[in-house]
Design brief:
Blueprint: H1 4-9, H2 18-24, E1 32-44, H3 49-55, E2 69-79, E3 85-93, E4 99-108, E5 113-118, E6 124-133, E7 136-148, E8 151-154, E9 162-170, E10 175-184, E11 188-202
Antiparallel strand pairs: 1-2, 1-11, 2-3, 3-4, 4-5, 5-6, 6-7, 7-8, 7-9, 9-10, 10-11
């Protein structure tokens, strides 16, 4: 079975650093990938605080900021009920109080890309697109929806997020590095982080996934 990220990246997959391919090429038969490290920066815009506080109810965004914050990211691959590749990610930031940022990515065969369900219940949904830059992985957010059961309501452009995440392997440090930035046409910078982490593999039982059985947005891009 081709991994979710390998399918999305396509022929450029071989251009990724081998450490990136190993970590993000995990399939449903693999162990769970656990990244542990520290965020050198967590930032936010005070104008976005109401949205960030709301995000804490769904394990999406949060209002805390700071430097040198320990974090962990758990990545677990599985096959959804339609037989498509999927990946669940759970991030934990040791802020005060600790915060979570969870999402589930699933291959969307009709839209020919990854569709991401954000938060504990997957109420916020977005297409994401992957590319390769200097051996690192670049993830950009695309069209976005709010999910009501099996219905998907498009998010108007002024309210939509522009997000980019870069993940690469630092040969000199022998560690993974990550940087993410979320912006909005009205508010500007909303939320972001930069950090470094190590990766290990663990044998753990499968996680119960609340959006495992949900439908996917349809239609060509």
């Amino acid at each position: 079975m081709t991994s979710l990220f390998e399918r999305a990246v396509g022929s450029d997959w071989t251009e990724l650093h081998p450490q990136i391919r190993e970590r993000y090429g995990l399939s449903a038969d693999d162990s769970v990938a656990i990244g542990t490290g520290r965020m050198s920066q967590l930032t936010h815009n005070v104008l976005a605080l109401p949205v960030l506080w709301l995000g804490t109810t769904q394990n999406v965004l949060f209002p805390e900021s700071g430097t040198d914050i320990p974090f962990e990211i758990k990545s677990e691959a599985f096959i959804d009920t339609d037989g498509n590749e999927a990946l669940r990610l759970q991030r934990r930031f040791e802020t005060d109080p600790p915060r979570r940022f969870d999402d589930t990515m699933r291959w969307n065969p009709e839209r020919e890309c990854i569709t991401e369900f954000l938060g504990r219940d997957g109420r916020l949904v977005a297409d994401i697109h992957l590319s390769v830059a200097d051996g690192g992985l670049v993830i950009e957010i695309g069209e976005q929806w709010i999910r009501f059961g099996d219905r998907f309501i498009s998010v108007p452009t002024p309210l939509a997020a522009n997000a980019i995440l870069q993940d690469w392997y630092d040969e000199y440090a022998g560690r993974f590095r990550v940087a993410a930035s979320i912006t909005n046409p009205l508010a500007g910078h909303v939320f972001g982080y930069q950090g470094v982490f190590d990766n290990e593999w663990r044998d753990e039982p499968p996680t119960d996934e609340p959006v495992r059985h949900s439908s996917l947005p349809s239609g060509r891009q």
